């Protein structure tokens, strides 16, 4: 079994204490940073200045999930701000192949995300240019929503394409991941599990990360 990666989402953390909240999950593989612009999704969170500061405040690689319009214009800034992985939405990117190239040239891994209703098939060729596929298992915009199990068919498709050598991707899932749902996602072939409320609503976020990882490996 490969090492299951856990990426706590700071969307459920205390935004006034981000450095401490990152420290609380120091065993995490990536720190998931949800950037929302109140246009692509009906919520507003944080942007480049916060990512720049967070980069200095933690050694955990930052996984920036851009739920924004016009990522072709903004995404490279997050790579330059020191994000390890920058994920854009397939539904929002005008030229996702050029965007992946620009992200890599700026020193980041390139991620492509698809909403629950977006099929994977039209993006298989585009995904050859990407390092990460982020399958949304809730409608993007808010933490604490219920897991949509239907998206696991897309995870299985991605897993098959990776295992047969057609794609080289970290398969990541985001939304509603907790102790009850992580097992089925792991079974479908997810490599990296984002968890917001399941980590930061726990009494001990660091322990919650280790528990989730153990369940994903089981
Ligand atoms: C939702 C965000 C998620 C969110 C997940 O739009 O992309 O990363 O933080 O939160 P939970 O794990 O609580 O569903
Ligand atoms: Zn996210």
Automatic annotation (TrEMBL):
<comment type="pathway">
    <text>Carbohydrate degradation.</text>
</comment>
<dbReference type="GO" id="GO:0046872">
    <property type="term" value="F:metal ion binding"/>
</dbReference>
<dbReference type="GO" id="GO:0006098">
    <property type="term" value="P:pentose-phosphate shunt"/>
</dbReference>
<feature type="binding site">
    <location>
        <position position="9"/>
    </location>
    <ligand>
        <name>substrate</name>
    </ligand>
</feature>
<dbReference type="InterPro" id="IPR013785">
    <property type="entry name" value="Aldolase_TIM"/>
</dbReference>
<dbReference type="InterPro" id="IPR000056">
    <property type="entry name" value="Ribul_P_3_epim-like"/>
</dbReference>
<dbReference type="InterPro" id="IPR011060">
    <property type="entry name" value="RibuloseP-bd_barrel"/>
</dbReference>
<keyword id="KW-0170">Cobalt</keyword>
<dbReference type="Pfam" id="PF00834">
    <property type="entry name" value="Ribul_P_3_epim"/>
</dbReference>
<protein>
    <recommendedName>
        <fullName>Ribulose-phosphate 3-epimerase</fullName>
        <ecNumber>5.1.3.1</ecNumber>
    </recommendedName>
</protein>
<keyword id="KW-0464">Manganese</keyword>
<keyword id="KW-0119">Carbohydrate metabolism</keyword>
<feature type="binding site">
    <location>
        <position position="174"/>
    </location>
    <ligand>
        <name>a divalent metal cation</name>
    </ligand>
</feature>
<dbReference type="InterPro" id="IPR026019">
    <property type="entry name" value="Ribul_P_3_epim"/>
</dbReference>
<feature type="binding site">
    <location>
        <position position="65"/>
    </location>
    <ligand>
        <name>substrate</name>
    </ligand>
</feature>
<feature type="binding site">
    <location>
        <begin position="174"/>
        <end position="176"/>
    </location>
    <ligand>
        <name>substrate</name>
    </ligand>
</feature>
<feature type="binding site">
    <location>
        <position position="176"/>
    </location>
    <ligand>
        <name>substrate</name>
    </ligand>
</feature>
<feature type="active site" description="Proton acceptor">
    <location>
        <position position="34"/>
    </location>
</feature>
<dbReference type="GO" id="GO:0019323">
    <property type="term" value="P:pentose catabolic process"/>
</dbReference>
<keyword id="KW-0413">Isomerase</keyword>
<keyword id="KW-0479">Metal-binding</keyword>
<feature type="binding site">
    <location>
        <begin position="141"/>
        <end position="144"/>
    </location>
    <ligand>
        <name>substrate</name>
    </ligand>
</feature>
<comment type="similarity">
    <text>Belongs to the ribulose-phosphate 3-epimerase family.</text>
</comment>
<feature type="binding site">
    <location>
        <position position="65"/>
    </location>
    <ligand>
        <name>a divalent metal cation</name>
    </ligand>
</feature>
<keyword id="KW-0862">Zinc</keyword>
<feature type="binding site">
    <location>
        <begin position="196"/>
        <end position="197"/>
    </location>
    <ligand>
        <name>substrate</name>
    </ligand>
</feature>
<feature type="binding site">
    <location>
        <position position="32"/>
    </location>
    <ligand>
        <name>a divalent metal cation</name>
    </ligand>
</feature>
<dbReference type="GO" id="GO:0004750">
    <property type="term" value="F:D-ribulose-phosphate 3-epimerase activity"/>
</dbReference>
<feature type="binding site">
    <location>
        <position position="34"/>
    </location>
    <ligand>
        <name>a divalent metal cation</name>
    </ligand>
</feature>
<feature type="active site" description="Proton donor">
    <location>
        <position position="174"/>
    </location>
</feature>
<dbReference type="GO" id="GO:0005737">
    <property type="term" value="C:cytoplasm"/>
</dbReference>
<comment type="function">
    <text>Catalyzes the reversible epimerization of D-ribulose 5-phosphate to D-xylulose 5-phosphate.</text>
</comment>
């Amino acid at each position: 079994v490969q090492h299951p990666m856990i990426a706590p989402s700071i969307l459920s953390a205390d935004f006034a204490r981000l450095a401490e909240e990152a420290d609380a999950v120091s065993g995490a593989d990536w720190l998931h940073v949800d950037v929302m612009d109140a246009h692509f999704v009906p919520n507003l969170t944080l942007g480049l200045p916060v990512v720049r500061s967070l980069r200095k405040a933690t050694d955990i690689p930052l996984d920036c999930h851009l739920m924004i319009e016009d990522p072709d214009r903004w995404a490279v800034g997050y790579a330059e701000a020191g994000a390890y992985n920058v994920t854009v939405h397939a539904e929002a990117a005008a030229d996702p192949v050029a965007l992946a190239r620009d992200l890599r040239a700026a020193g980041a891994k390139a991620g492509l995300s698809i909403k629950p209703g977006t099929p994977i098939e039209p993006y298989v060729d585009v995904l050859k240019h990407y390092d990460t596929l982020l399958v949304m298992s809730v409608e993007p915009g808010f933490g604490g929503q219920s897991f949509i199990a239907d998206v696991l068919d897309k995870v299985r498709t991605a897993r098959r394409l990776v295992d047969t050598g057609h794609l080289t991707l970290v398969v990541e899932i985001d939304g509603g991941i907790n102790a009850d749902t992580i097992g089925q996602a792991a079974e479908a072939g997810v490599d990296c599990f984002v968890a917001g409320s399941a980590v930061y609503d726990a009494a001990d976020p660091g322990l919650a990360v280790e528990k989730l990882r153990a369940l994903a490996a089981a």
